[in-house]
Amino acid sequence: MTKAPHESGPFDTEIDRLETVTLTEKQKKAQRNRSIGLAIALILFVVLVYAGTIAKLGSNILQRTF
């Protein structure tokens, strides 16, 4: 018994059936720009949280007793 090309057996992987997309140069550039924008936003958020923590603690951070 032969299988039709569209039928899958128990050992076929999902990767064999996935279609891949090839990005154009314009799409790659847009994706890179989005990634850079997200990285900058994340860094700014971390700096903001750090600065807020230091401002909230103030000089008390140096007066800790152990």
UniProtKB/TrEMBL annotation:
Keywords (A to Z) from UniProt: Membrane, Transmembrane, Transmembrane helix
Transmembrane intervals: 36-55
Top-level division of the source organism's lineage: Bacteria
Protein name according to UniProt: Cytochrome C oxidase assembly protein
Organism: Daeguia caeni
